[in-house]
Every structure is written in structure tokens, then in C-alpha cells.
Amino acid sequence: MTKIIMDSTADLPADIIEKCGIDILPLRVNIGGKEYIDKVTITVEKVYEAMRKGIHPDTSLPNIKTTYELFEKYASKGIDFIFYSFSSKLSSTYETCYLIMEELKQNYTDVKMKILDTKGGSFASGLIAMQGALLSKVGISFQEIVDISKENIKSIEHIFTIDDLTWLLEGGRIAKTEEMLGKILNIKPILHVDDGEMIVIDKIRGRKRALKTVVDLVEERIRDFPDQIIGITHADDLEAALKVKDMIFNRIGNNNIFIEKIGGVLGSHLGIGGVGVFFFNNRPQVYINGI
To answer: Under CATH, what is the fold of the domain 3-154?
Structure first.
């Protein structure tokens, strides 16, 4: 059976991670000059607590030694594995892990190992990795999982809105004048991910209208595959996530929806109040709809 590994920017409920047997490679979070291991030595709640105090956490790649040891743990036991990485256009995690894996391939020539750039993060990467794990559990071959995962990467959707423009300014995605004007007019940007990059696709006045716009886009893009597992993530705003879930159910009748808090690494860059919806825009050639 192929082992599935994802990094800690991927979001899935803890019980699903356990049921699927997915292993996690953690990134790092720095708060007030102290380094933490994402979701290991610091909880998501603690990261948001710091942010609410006005602290802007810094984030960094997984520790190289930790990465090598995690991959070697499976290679040394002769276990084939696939690592699902955060978008290579948003982080150097993919590049670093690729080089480590190439080194391990020289020492463990009989073990199949593959790194996949999910070209996304959060619940999007989580859904892709989850399908990989479920396929592995039913006996799908290593190469078939890789091939199906590549197709899933092409069809995954990220649609989200950010509540506080300060975090887009900090990330260099908008200018100071845009941030100031946006706050005055109560502008909420709508974003999606295109080929691994976050793109602002609309700017809506008011939180309520922004959430409705997110659901409008979900309804439009999920039309060809409405009966699937949908992921919703939020940056410490469960109430907004529940509203979005109810709207999606009322629109398309799908109640197979999981809600999870956006992890500390991504949350540090998106800011408090962000809400996103993640799903496939067409039916994969092989799809498992139960966990």
C-alpha cells in the first residue's frame, strides 16, 4: 500500500487524517522571535490568538533534517510513498523536498517515491491527498494514484474571500492606496488559485455580499460534479463558514461538507476572517465519495 504524506499547509479534519492514515510534514511558524513547529508545538488557535493581538507571524519551510527523516522512515522500510506539496509558486517547500527525495532515491532504488505539486494549499491540497489515501486503501497502484492525482490537481478549485485587506498589503498583493480605499468602502476581495498562484478575481462591497459571491462561483463551477466532498475553511470565523455551508446546501443540495480552520501557516498570510471553499470542477476518472 502506498503511503500518503502532505505538508501542514494542507487542511483536513483530524479524524479524516487519522482514518486515511496520512502523515504530515510540518512547516514552521515564528512568533515574537520564537520558532514553533506548525500544528505540533503550536496550535492553530494560538497562532490566531497572536494575530488578534496585532502580531504578524513569520513562516518558514519544513526543517530539512525532519523532512529527510520522515521520507527515510518509509523508504528504509521499503514502503512506497507520495508527498503532496503546497504550491511551488507560493512556497519553496516543493523545491526543497524534491531535492531531498532525489537524494533518497539514490540510496533506496527499489522504493517508489514521488512528490506532487498540488498547485494549491489548505483544503484543496487536503482533498487531493485524501483521494490519494483512499485510492491507496482500496488497492490502486502507485502509478495510478500519481496519474489520478495529477488530473485532480488540474480540476481542483479554491474560491475564497479575505476580510482584512491588511494581510494582502503585507503580502505585497495590493498597494497601500488600494488597502486604504478598500477599508473606507468596505471592499472584500474574492480570490481563486490559477496554476498555483492566488489571483484577485473580484472586489465586492460588504461581507454578506462577498460570501454570496463565493457561493455563486461555487454553484457555477461545481455544476458538472455536484455530488462530492466539499471542504470549507475559515480563518477563525466559524460563523461565516457555517453560513457558507448553509448557502451551498440550499443551492445544490450537497450536505457532504466538512469545515476546518485554516492552518497557522496560511492563516498568517491570509489574515483573520478569511473563508474558502474547495472542490473539484469535474468528476475524476476514479473518485471515492466515502471515508
So the answer is: Rossmann fold (3.40.50)
